[in-house]
Structure formats: C-alpha cells, structure tokens
Amino acid sequence: MNRSWCRRPVLSLALMFVLALAGCSSESPAGPATKPASPSATETQATPPPAPEPFPVRAFADINADPVSEDRAAELQAVLEEMSEDADGAGMSATVLSPEGSWSGAIGTADASGRKVGVRDQFAIASVTKTIVATQVMQLVEAGELGLDDPAADYLPADLDFDSNGATIRHLLSHYSGIPDWFDDEFKEKLATRPGRSWRLAEVLATIEEDRWPAGETFEYADTNYNLLGLIIEQVTGRPLVDVLRDGVLGIDRIPRLIYQPDEAPSEPIAMPYAEPVSALEARGGTLPSLADSTSAGPAGALATDASSLAHWWQALCTGQLVSPESLTAMARDVETGERIDRYGDGHGLGLTNMTGSDARSFGYGGYNLGYLAWTACLPASGSVVVVLTNTTEVPEAWPRPLVAEVDCGEAGATP
C-alpha cells in the first residue's frame, strides 16, 4: 500500500476540512475561499492545458463485498467511537468499502430520546448532492443532449427572469460561473426561523445580488450553480428532476436509503439534526434538516441517506458504472490548470474535489447544512470508499481524519 499520505503534514488535511465541509456557501465557515482570477479564455486557448491523467477506475476494482473480519470491524468501530467522543458524543455513521471487505458502524445519539444511531439511520448530506447532480449532467452530455461548453441560457426557460451571466454548463458545474450565492448568513437565519416553509426557485433566485464576476475567470462556490443545473436537467428532459435521477444516476441497486427530498420523504430510523426529538420532524416540514432547507437547496443539497447507501453510490461512480471513464476524467480535471485535481480551494472539478489534501489523491465531496456534516471520498491509494455522516456541526477540524487514516494507512490517526 502507498503510505505517502500517512506522512504528510496533518495541518494540510485540517485546513482542507475547514474548506471542504461546506458545501453550501463561500461565506459559511465551511465554504471554499474565493480564488484569484484565472487566466483569460484567450490565454488559456493559446496554451492548451496538458492532458489530464485518466481517472483511476481500476484502483477500485478489488472492493470486496464480504464483511471485514471481526477484528478489523472492532478496529474501525473503535476509531469511530473516538471520533464521536471528540465531538461530545455526536451521532455518527460510517461505511468503508475496501479490498479487505466492507464495514458499517455507528455511534452516538440519534435523537432526544437517547436512542443510539444505527447503521440504517438517515442523515441529510447537503452538498454531496452536487456530485450526484453533476453525474446526471454528465449522463446527458454522454447522450448528446447537453454540451459542457454550451451556454446555460440555451437550456433555461425563456421566461426565467435571471441573469445567467453567459456561463456555460462547465462553469456551473465547477463554480466558475461568476454568479453569486444565495446561502449567506441572512438566508440561514430564514431557514432557522421558518423551517417549515416551502421555497420556490424563483423566490430563492430573487434573493441574489445583481453583481457578477466574469464567467470563467474566478472560482466562487455557489449553490446557485446547481439550482440552475437542476432546472436545466428538467428543461432538457421534460421531466421532474427526481424522476430523471431515479431513472438515471439513482437507478442502481444497494442504495435503498438514498432519497431526494422533498419528493421522497425520510423514514425511520432517522438521526435528527443536533439530536432533536423525532417529533420536531413535523415542525421542520417532514424533511432533513427541514422543508425550508431541502426546497431552497434542491439540486444543490436536498439528498438524505444512510452511510451504506451513499458509499455504494460512490463505488458505482468511481468504478465507472454511472458514467464513462472519460467523463470521470473530465469531472476530476482541475478547471484552472487542466490537471487532475490535487487540492481543495485551489482546484475544483465538475462536481468532484480532492478531500485529503495536496499530498494524497482522493475524489469526493463534503456537505454542510443546519445540523449535519457529510464526508465522502474514493481513495485510490487503498482502493477504498469512505463515507462518514454526523448529525451535528460541532466537531473538531478534520473530524473524519482518524477513520480515513485507518483505512488508507492501517494506523488510526496516523501523524508524521
């Protein structure tokens, strides 16, 4: 096993988590920072980027569906328990799919009754939704129904009163559209005070300021990009997004608890946000973390799942079952440099980013919303998939690091 990642400075991963667990806003503590302007389109065309390395589909070919040994399961569970203790007993659920076998574990408090989280508990996963929607877009690209460099405006409703800034489909996928985000502190307050409200897309878009950056020049993380992509999918197919997903990237086996809210409702067992009473679900509009959150975020962050279902979805993605290896290579290509994504914040692909810092390669995404955090990645060094979910936002920086290190290095919490 390649153990170079085990020797990298721990700080690189800690800083990455401050950025990567966002998933919703550049203004939130978990959101990626704004990048300096990239070279102009003319300069980029004058010097073509190098061909990216192919996506390492074969690295994940040896994942073993059988359970890991009892001893190995105990080791992984012990690491998860430590992680929960470090977060004051927060509920956590995790799944590891690896060549040595598969494992799911859970620990911590699920709700105010004191019930412990189980491996089937559903959690909201916020912006991990973006990778799933990006994959659906790539399926449409492969089918010839979209082009990555087509103007987004070509596929948006003619009566949509919104400035798409000349952005292309690629710009939306990679957060280079120049369009601002709507998820700021003011909007978070609206979500918190009226959790049962159902938001329409037009209402969400109306909250966005008019100023724009030039499309293609600046990385600025914005849920708005994926709100528009969801609308584009519906316009191209003539069908509701949930139906397209169910017949597309969600139309696979082993993901029974992966749902698109509010069209599909969570079901018990549920890890409630901040371990609230289960009765609070009704006041929250029946979705996780709330109806206000799921309807405003939509294709930018409305999914909920258990850890096992999500891990099997990532396995299907990284083994080339959902889109071609060529599409995966495009998704994993740093939009600025043209090379494979190696960094978070400095490098972002099409619905994918590197979740483990600059000295190791991984392909995944993080999610943050009011009451949940999610961490997901395919790890080529060990040929593994790791998913960790929690029902709190009060966790240490780089909170999944011990489990990721145990999987990739065989030593919990490995440090230089």
TrEMBL record:
Kindly give the Pfam families that the UniProt entry links to this protein: Beta-lactamase
Beta-lactamase-related domain location: 77-395
Low complexity composition-biased segments: 36-46
Which keywords annotate this record?
Answer: Hydrolase, Signal
Q: Carries keyword Metal-binding?
A: no
Single GO MF descriptor: hydrolase activity
**What are the boundaries of the signal sequence?**
1-30
Q: Give the top-rank taxon of the lineage listed in the UniProt record for this protein.
A: Bacteria
Concerning InterPro entries, the annotation shows: Beta-lactam-related, Beta-lactam/transpept-like, Diverse_Enzym_Activities
- PROSITE patterns, per this entry? PROKAR_LIPOPROTEIN (PS51257)
Residue ranges, annotated region (Disordered): 26-57
Report whether Acetylation shows up as a keyword of the record: no
Q: What is this protein called?
A: Class A beta-lactamase-related serine hydrolase
Species whose genome carries this gene: Nocardioides immobilis
